[in-house]
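Appendix B, record 7
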Amino acid sequence: MLFIVAALLLFGVVLGVVAHAPLFFTAVAAAVIAGWLGVFALRERHARRLAHGRAVPVK
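Structure tokens (predicted):
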């Protein structure tokens, strides 16, 4: 529960910053986050394919 409260507090701070940040900074930050999520998704997909081919648990 404490984790959820901390996450919501951090989310509110980030949204406050984005509301006052220049559009260029917001676009660059959004692109970096999208790239990070894309890399994460590809790594997860690759790990699941390897796990289905062999009897190795996914960490």
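Remarks on this record: The two ends are 25 Å apart (CA to CA). The chain has a mean pLDDT of 82.
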